[in-house]
Design a protein that fits this description.
By secondary structure, the protein is mostly helical. The chain is 67% helix and 5% strand. It has one domain. The protein is rod-shaped.
Amino acid sequence: MQKEAALKLDALFERVEGQRQQEEERKREEQRRQEEAQRLEAQRLEEERTQAAEERRREELARRARESLEARERAGDWLQFGYKPLEPVFDGDWDNEDNPPEYLDNEEWSHLDSNQGPPACEAGALTS
């Protein structure tokens, strides 16, 4: 009888131990799922931030292109009368986006005479 009780006790112990191991494995699996979900969520958020930044960059480039086109159109009105800008009109390309060239805000113009004479490199040849 003691042997039977010992066998039943061993079987009960093994069953309880098996259930404990299953519960631990279930908890580990749940933790792995949560970590994977967090990793995927972080990746999704990073992709959204990247897309938003790219969209903002595209919008800024489009805005600059519109402003450049408007400046060229304004410049065209003056160019037909023989005026030219002292600095080139913005062509939509500079290296430092946070620090655009100063000439973008410059509204100064020069006027070319209709008879400008020969270039400086040839001027001396005509006088001697």
